[in-house]
């Protein structure tokens, strides 16, 4: 188990203990922290407290971070859409509605389960829950992902992501009619302090840049292509909302009145990277899913 300490400062006076602790690490959800408090993993001045404890200045918070839960992730036969595969890398077109990797309480039906059945050799760098996973896309976003089949490939692909040399282009339908043809959104992203499960634009967040261009305009919507320069959590969804054009169907960042679609209209259609071993530039393109095409046809017919 890992242990960390934190002293409550003036700006956290009166905050609930679960809120104060969850702000210390963006990977910690408030729900997770509440569970730690109930299990006695969070102490205030050496004593256990309840989740609604109100912090005082100079309170000493001790957090004993439990070891990750060991999960039994089993291979599952799936009809995966493999676009490319060799001994180092694999490119797969993830369908809409599929989670990329398992999590506690959700250990089956994920892309990782399918990958484990498809190939026996996946990079172990990200551990048992995320074998081979270098980057991910949200459950309701469809499209292309690169997967590492060994640690050499994993390190190379991660380094390319950090160096911003990976090409990632997405197609999206957004609310509103964007007046200009091209744009760049340069706005830092971080956890929303009011909702730890959401991201938002914050002054001291992580650097995030999205480029977009308009493909087609409709009566109340716009079809756009977005290119990621960085790859932050929910980046396109948050950035498009930030400039006033949230994604259609987005349950977290979009309006309630939207198109008849389950989840955001977002597709990772183009992926390009340098092969870890041969250094050849590879690029792949996946067509829009059928229901995405149907949405575009509906909008075209109802201008």
Query: Please, how many helices?
Result: 6
Beta fraction of the residues? 25-35%
The CATH homologous superfamily name of the largest domain equals Pseudouridine synthase
Rg result: 21 Å
What is the CATH level 1 assignment of the largest domain? Answer: Alpha Beta
Number of domains: 3
Number of strands: 15
Q: Which structural class do the helices and strands define?
A: alpha+beta
CATH architecture of the largest domain: 2-Layer Sandwich
Shape: globular
What assembly state would you assign to the polypeptide chains in this entry? single chain
Write the element-wise H/E pattern from the N-terminal end onward: EHHEEEEEHEHEEEEEEHEEH
Question: Averaged pLDDT, please?
Answer: 92
Q: What composes the largest sheet?
A: 9 strands, mixed
Describe the structure.
With 303 residues, the protein is of the alpha+beta class. It has 3 domains: 2-65, RNA-binding S4 domain (Structural Genomics Hypothetical 15.5 Kd Protein In mrcA-pckA Intergenic Region, Chain A, Roll); 69-162, 2-Layer Sandwich (Pseudouridine synthase); 169-268 and 292-301, Pseudouridine synthase (2-Layer Sandwich), CATH 3.30.2350. Helices cover 18% and strands 30% of the residues. It is built from 6 helices and 15 strands. The chain has helices at 17-22, 30-38, 111-118, 151-162, 235-242, 290-301, and strands at residues 2-7, 42-44, 47-48, 60-65, 81-85, 89-94, 142-148, 167-175, 182-186, 189-192, 195-201, 209-217, 221-228, 266-274, 281-285. The strands form 3 sheets. Strands 5, 6, 7, 8, 9, 12, 13, 14 and 15 form a 9-stranded mixed beta sheet that branches. The radius of gyration is 21 Å and the shape is globular.
């Amino acid at each position: 188990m890992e242990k960390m300490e934190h002293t409550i400062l003036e700006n956290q006076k009166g905050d609930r203990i679960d809120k104060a602790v969850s702000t210390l690490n963006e990977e910690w959800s408030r729900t997770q922290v509440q569970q730690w408090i109930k299990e006695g993993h969070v102490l205030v001045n050496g004593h256990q407290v309840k989740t609604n404890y109100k912090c005082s200045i100079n309170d000493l918070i001790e957090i004993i971070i439990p070891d990750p839960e060991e999960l039994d992730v089993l291979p599952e036969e799936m009809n995966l859409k493999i676009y490319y595969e060799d001994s180092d890398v694999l490119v797969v077109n993830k369908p809409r509605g599929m989670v990329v990797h398992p999590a506690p309480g959700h250990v089956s039906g994920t892309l990782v389960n399918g990958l484990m059945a498809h190939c026996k050799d996946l990079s172990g760098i990200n551990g048992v829950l995320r074998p081979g996973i270098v980057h991910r896309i949200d459950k309701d976003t469809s499209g292309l992902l690169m997967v590492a089949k060994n640690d050499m490939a994993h390190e190379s692909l991660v380094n390319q992501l950090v160096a911003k040399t990976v090409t990632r282009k997405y197609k999206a339908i957004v609310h509103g009619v964007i007046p200009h043809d091209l744009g760049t959104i340069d706005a830092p992203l971080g956890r929303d302090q009011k909702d730890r499960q959401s991201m938002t634009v914050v002054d001291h967040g992580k650097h995030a840049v999205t480029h977009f261009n308009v493909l087609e305009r409709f009566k109340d919507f716009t079809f756009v292509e977005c290119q990621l320069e960085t790859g932050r959590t929910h980046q396109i969804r948050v950035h498009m909302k930030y400039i006033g054009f949230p994604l259609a169907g987005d349950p977290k960042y979009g309006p309630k009145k939207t198109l008849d679609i389950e989840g955001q209209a977002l597709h990772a259609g183009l992926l390009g990277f340098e092969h870890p071993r041969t250094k050849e530039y590879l690029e792949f393109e996946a067509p829009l899913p059928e229901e995405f095409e149907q949405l575009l046809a509906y909008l075209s017919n109802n201008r």
